[in-house]
Design a protein that fits this description.
The complex is a heterodimer of chains A (261) and B (772). Chain A is α+β, with helices and mostly antiparallel strands. Chain A has helices at residues 38-45, 50-57, 62-65, 70-75, 83-89, 185-191, 198-211, 222-241; strands at residues 23-26, 29-32, 93-98, 101-106, 111-113, 116-117, 124-131, 139-143, 154-163, 166-175, 182-183. In chain A, β10 and β11 form a beta hairpin. Chain B has 19 helices and 31 strands. In chain B, a hairpin with a 4-residue loop joins β27 (600-602) and β28 (607-609). Classes of the chains: A alpha+beta (261), B alpha+beta (772).
Chain lengths: 261, 772
Amino acid sequence: MTKQHRKFGTFIWTGRVAGFDQIETDGDFMRIMPAVTHQQFLHHIADALPECAELLRRFGALQVRSSGTVCGNIANASPIGDLPPVLMALASKIELTKASKTRILDLENFFLDYGKQDRQSGEFLSAILVPQEPAPHLRCYKISKRFDQDISAVMLAANLHLDDGVITDVCLAFGGMAGIPKRASHAEAKLAGKPLDMTHFKAAAAALRDDFTPLSDMRGSAEYRLLTSQNLLIKYGLDLTASRQMRLAGADLAAGLEGWS
Amino acid sequence: MTSSGVDGDIRQSKHHDSAVKHVSGRAVYVDDMATPANCLTVLIGQSAHAHAKITLMDLSAVAAAPGIVAVMTAADIPGVNDCGPVIHDDPVFAVDEVCYVGQSLFAIAAVDMAAARAAIGLAVIEYDPLPAILTIDAAMQAKSWLASPSEMIKGDVQTALTAAPHALRGRVCAGGQEHFYLEGQAALAIPGEDGEIQLFCSTQHPSEIQNKTAQMLGLANHAVTVETRRMGGAFGGKESQGNLPAMTAALAAYLTGQPAKTIYDRDDDFMLTGKRHDCRIDYHVGFDDDGRVLAVEFEQALRCGMSWDLSAGIAARAMCHADNAYDIPHMKITNYCCLTHTQSNTAFRGFGGPQGMLGIERVMDEVAHYLGLDPLQVRRKNFYPDKGAAKFGITPYGQTVEDCVIQPIVDELVKTSDYVARRAAIAAFNAANQYVKRGIALTPVKFGISFNTTFLNQAGSLIHVYNDGSVHLNHGGTEMGQGLYTKIAQIVAHEFQIDVDLVKITATTTGKVPNTSATAASSGTDLNGMAAMRAAQTIKGRIAAFLADEYQTDQAEVVFANGQVHIGTDSMAFADAVKRAYLGRVSLSATGFYATPKLSWDKDRMHGRPFYYFAYGAAVSEVIVDLLTGENRLLRADLLHDVGKSINPAIDMGQIEGGFLQGVGWLTTEELVWDAAGRLQTHAPSTYKIPACSDRPIDWRVAFYADGENSEDTIHKSKAVGEPPLMLGISSFLALSDALAGIKGAAYPALDAPATAERLLLTANRLGANFV
């Protein structure tokens, strides 16, 4: 192919298979078919999931977003893909199909190890199932050298539910911190069952050391990846507890800089 | 002289002559040119080691692969195996030893790129690795230098440092910068009769490619012709680095008798070519309570890579800009050209000036921090005296600064940018916010215009006027998107007083104007504009003399104005005058030549007048930094720059905007990373980040210094504008540093460049911004 000049025997172009470019409603889920592009997905979720839409806006340029697909971003299983953490934080499932057989698994269980997924020979990713329910506490933090058109050094997608002021179903899904997109279970444990209070976000940040031993590469050092990840948990806490979001990316900063803390 | 009736006259914002073609994809670059069916594709085999003996190079499998027409090594070169621009230390193909990862070992000529790519990996190369020196620190420790350090001395720095009320020492490091021209290196060679070669190259320096190609092939220069219509960006990266692609294409054409082209893809371009020199600058500064700087000693270390390339000139310019706009009584600048086993670093917009300037701007900033003063106040204390002053300042290299306008520029910018009120507002903001900090900085630029090397300051032109009154313009300058061709056409249109559309812009070629200098050092318009004006004046003079004779009047009675030629009370269209001159057997073709006056330079003493004049400007940048992530935004930038009397305001404005943002990129997001084995890890846009359009300042205000006028007799009193605005970007870097200085209880940030989000976060962390 273009970059590595690799040669492949046979290609099957699925981009124009009937129905593959559809986003359907499937019970409580939206069903993202294999050829749905980032741009299509962005439009579809712009109102319901603005955090995810803003993240998608930072993917490449319009031309690239209109070419790359959501399922491709998952099936590629890159540890630095941005959509896997987001879709994990939304408790998405994926559907794998081989001939007439399909099976469904939680997205987070698809990624086994670096370069290894729970996909059998002959199976293809036939759909992603994203819950339709609103996600008011979803936040997506993409940390890269440049805001737009860059690959993340660290990506955090965080989500939780509040049940009577108590945190439940917390998911802190990271990209760039391990060989696969991965949840921070130790950090999550510091938040689960706790009230929405900065003390617990700080405890979660401290616990992150037990979750990850990141690598150094040209996108960022291990030290930076860990520190910024810990800080992102602080930022998540601030975003949920303070009156406004504190993000420099994409935000209309010209509108005013007051009210930060 | 009135000029209102001439479309595209000087001072008019005529759009770039190829603007429509650029945006519609119809501008032809080298790789777009139609080639004969038998045209070969050349691909260069590269070294896998930073430093090693080559123990075996077996290319038999490559040669036997399908579609391979020729395999070329040093043994196939009939003449000189060298592509170095100044010193002959840069082999076209490595012999015995390799000195960087990516170095050219051999090249193949194939029927197409697919065949070339499939074959190149079949080469069997064995190495015996040698110790490699990769970094400035390692080179300084090992005294691995291209030559002994050079010194520039003004006054008695040691005595002054000892006597100064305050002194401090510090260090600033800045990374290199990839040129990232949109069009990669490209060359097409077409063999002619009797060993002649015609080359079409994306180069800033056709004459050098002509010269180097002739040497390589053992030919006289007259056998090689090099043509350049345009480049898709160059930024200094095609001043010398275009030699290798051109020479490999030429060698393939010479050996096979078939046309051949060498087009680097982006990864190869990154791996093969040199970049801006990264630097390490140590300083020792003495100053008084008011911030008057009394003495500075600099040690500048530049990473040159594995050969000289243009590093001697770059080092000289770094030294010549260590004072920037400041009149410092005692200075000593020592420069080390570090020899490392990495790409041979090369010209890049500013040519060492940015590194030199970064050093002194950092000094001003740290002195202010030490004294608890606004850095602007310290800068103002130290500016060179104004051009109207009773006594001028003298640079560390002995040039009198006679044309300084930095004080009025800064005064105006302080007002228009509302600097004082904004600095106060930022201080209040920073006191009230712990997770985000804002910062502001104003930095000046004084940039010397002319090649440091005196003999390069010459240019030629060739103009034909055809008997229908249309004009063919040619000169030695090359077009890299900067708008040179457009400006020169305007100068010629002005001279003949005809619409610029009557002036045909033609490709630069060594066949029309010989022995040219590179289009570099911001000098393109200054040099070629003068040469073109003189050629036009020669032809005008002949027409005027002829008509004066016909009308039995004085030549002074013949006036060219608004498309007409007036002879006393009579007048005729320019085309009619031309036709009459033609029928009267007058030569309507002329060359023009220009050599910049007043220059002298003693490179051994680092002393003289290397610059005809200085270009000035200043910028205020304001930034915001997120201390949790290091993410940051450029909130506002106000630029005020002196272009003298602009020949084309729209084009000059574009140069200021683009230069500034390229400077910001150098100091912020553009990070080159080599691994421990000396392999460049960031060799594509996926990992190397030039500013995107969304990185431009949210509020961006750019203006010309309204009173600008060149004190010297330059072309229509304009000033060079290619490089100087790049250094306005230093304001953004120091604004980021200022934001970090806003951390409660912080020491001086001593920020290094590039100030990536990572570096900002880790620096903030070191300064006490800890939240976990």
